[in-house]
Amino acid sequence: xxxxxxxSTTSAWRLGALLLAAATFTAACDKAQLLAPTRSTITVSAPxxxxxxxxxxxISAYVIEQAxxxxxxxxxxxxxxxxxxxxxxxxxxxNGLAKATFSAGSSSGVAEIxxxxxxxSGGTDNLNLVRITIGAAAVxxxxxxxxxxxxxxxxxAVELIATAVTENGQGVEGVSVTFSADQGSLSSPTAITxxxxxxxxxxxxxxxxxxxxxxxxxxASPVKVTVRAGPIVSLTCAPAGGSSNCxxxxxxxxxxxxxxxxxxxxPTGSSALRSATLEFxxxxxxxxxxxxxxxASISHAYAGPTGSSPRSYTATVRVEDVxxxxxxxxxxxxxxxxxxxxxxxxxxxxxxxxxxxxxxFTATAIGVSDTGTIQSYAWDFGDSATVTTSGGTTAHVYTxxxxxxxxxxxxxxxxxxxxxxxxxxxxxx
Length: 429
What we know:
- The structure is a single chain.
- This protein is mostly beta strands.
- It has five domains: 1-27; 41-137, Immunoglobulin-like; 139-227, Immunoglobulin-like, CATH 2.60.40; 234-336, Immunoglobulins (Immunoglobulin-like); 342-426, Immunoglobulins (Immunoglobulin-like).
- The protein is built from one helix and 34 strands.
- Strands 11, 13, 15, 17, 18 and 19 form a six-stranded mixed sheet that branches. Strands 2-9-8-4-6 form a five-stranded mixed sheet, with no helix packed on it.
- The longest helix has 30 residues, at 2-31.
- The protein is rod-shaped and about 170 Å long.
- It starts with a helix and ends with a strand.
- Residues 1-13 and 15-30 have low confidence and may be disordered.
């Protein structure tokens, strides 16, 4: 009885050991990864070979056996990269295809992404390796331009546009471009390229400026932002027929005006003009066109003052060039009162007769250079008799003894008057 019990116990122990070994073997088989067989081929691909910093793309690995058929579903493929990250790193195939996501990260460079599985390889062509260029490392060349390429004579702002491209001329997106300028100021010294590979900033300057743009290890050829020549014009004034200035022009006694010659000149170095207008300062103006000949001279009469104070005018020429830049320059014309006028009166008597005495009167103009400007002489002989003459001499016969006051009033064609008086004594026989 004891023998039978012992034998049964031993058999049970052996059976348990066998069952445990079988379970252990089964678990080990369940945990073992399914890998590609020897002489299988892995081909890795990506929809893009260039990524901006922080960009992502899908990575695909296609695994086929030597016979050209896809490996068994569930075959484990491992992805590795020298830059950035792969997620997930281990992927099981389905119909021979394993996919993962590559994230570029913030560092520029070339990421080498490789897929491996068991005895598979990429062959002599390294088909299991794909290279993705990240950020500034993808830039093969960079150019910079300014729009517009110049600023006005008083300065201004231009847009700077840098374009970063690959070897095949494709724009590189997401690249940081650094701008530098030897004059003026930049709205921002750095900018990120857009989908077309363009980065933009604004330069404000009043001087010729050299601009450079850099992306990664590539620098653009410098570009110059120039300062355009502006419209330049001068304005001078001289009395008509004279050579002095116009700071004190006496008004003509006859017309109470002064005529001047205004000369507008566009010197060498001025930009091409679109228009020029001369404003005389008295409400009148004249268009001078584009001053293609370089200068223009215009005669103009300025009215003199009505009182004793000088009268001032400001003549201004305003110009605009073909770029829309404007300029103006002025000069002052001062017209002083015309000279004052006067008249003197002399008398001559003849022998007195019982019937009367004849007197001759002569009026002489003072301050009138041209007697043609005198319109008339009005005479009052003091005995109620009057006469108006065009000349300065007249005569009158007095028929009664007495003292008489004689007055002459001279009037010019522009309305000015001057008077003189004298007394005479008449004594008849």
